[in-house]
Amino acid sequence: MKPEDLKLLVTLEMPFGKYKGRLIADLPGHYLNWFAREGFPKGQIGQLLQLMQEIDHNGLSALLEPLRSKPREPLR
User: Which Pfam family, an example, fits this chain (predicted)?
Assistant: First the structure.
């Protein structure tokens, strides 16, 4: 794992399947666990799904919150 992989989890959308368009970090645990049982896809998306499954399984999802883009405050 590289530190930039964590940022990808909160910016990259799932490119296929039932949850297409949802951020990797927002995929439900049961979906990530299905991949863990059935096999992760090859390539970067598979590596990111595996990383997210580990994070979710170990209850560490809150650690990604500081990496999420925050809406900008309106100028006053």
Answer: QSregVF_b
